[in-house]
Design a protein that fits this description.
The protein is an alpha/beta fold. The chain is built from two helices and 18 strands. Strand 17 and strand 18 form a beta hairpin. The radius of gyration is 23 Å and the shape is elongated.
Length: 266
């Protein structure tokens, strides 16, 4: 085979590969298919960063503004003093999840979440404490739908804890714990009661014996320990059917023999 024939064959192959790549790109664009990403926020982050695990953003709002369908936002443990206007929507095939990072507890201290006209959105695992003005801790409103508010703790908001207005479609309020004003109606599997934290004034949100949040949470895939590394299911009934607690810290009860707190595996 002569050199000219070889060169022509290589040229034809390159053109074929280019056309195949272009066709694949156009198909993805036409179908609205996007690559889902996992992003991170941390109190020590920077909103000018990339949002990756080793370069997190600083504020939840800046992160939310960048989310696309299918994305997951992991908010690392710590305090965030901001009102977050969510304003983003996923799709049925690619919902958006905004959550406390597994095993950690992100706290909106004086802040709140507003999901207006949002669809296919999940808000999970936050602690919302003392909202400003008359804001609800978490408000879902507008013409959207399919919003899930799951496994959150709402403590002493100025307004209501969780509000959904204008009948957003298929909104799920599930496994939340409220300590708030009277007259509220809990969602499915949710609790309106004093969660019996150890010392709220010092932001110590560990659970005391008898807390209604003990064994009242929901199992999350891949989450086996709390913020301090305590294995889940260690606080309530000692059986395989025990559920994790609502909140950042799994309740650890004392043993009958010694009165010393026990952690699973010790």
């Amino acid at each position: 085979m002569t050199k000219s024939v070889v060169d022509r064959s290589k040229h034809v192959m390159r053109r074929l590969i280019q056309r195949l790549l272009l066709t694949a790109f156009l198909v993805l664009q036409a179908g609205g298919i996007a690559c889902a990403e996992s992003y991170f926020v941390s109190p020590s982050g920077d909103d000018r960063g990339t949002g990756w695990n080793d370069d997190p953003w600083r504020t939840i709002q800046a992160a939310v503004n960048r989310l696309k369908p299918g994305d997951e936002l992991n908010v690392r443990g710590g305090k965030y003093r901001e009102h977050v206007d969510l304003g983003v929507s996923g799709t049925e095939a690619q919902p958006i999840t905004i959550r406390s990072h597994p095993g950690e507890q992100a706290t909106l201290d004086g802040g709140s979440f507003l999901a207006r006209d949002c669809s296919y959105l999940r808000i999970e695992g936050f602690r919302v404490v003392g909202t400003r003005g008359n804001r609800a801790g978490i408000e879902v409103t507008g013409s959207g739908g399919f919003v899930e508010v799951v496994n959150n703790i709402l403590y002493a908001p100025r307004g209501h804890s969780i509000v959904f207005l204008n009948r957003p479609r298929e909104t799920v309020i599930d496994y939340n714990c409220y300590f708030t004003r009277s007259g509220e109606t809990p969602g499915k599997n949710s609790i309106i009661a004093d969660p019996l934290f150890e010392d709220v004034a010092k932001h110590n949100f560990r659970l005391l014996p008898g807390s209604p949040c003990i064994d009242a949470g929901v199992t999350l895939p891949g989450v086996a320990r709390d913020f301090e590394g305590t294995e889940l299911y260690s606080g309530g009934e000692e059986n395989a059917d025990s559920l994790p607690d609502i909140g950042a810290f799994e309740f650890v009860r004392a043993t009958q023999e010694t009165g010393v707190s026990r952690r699973l595996g010790e």
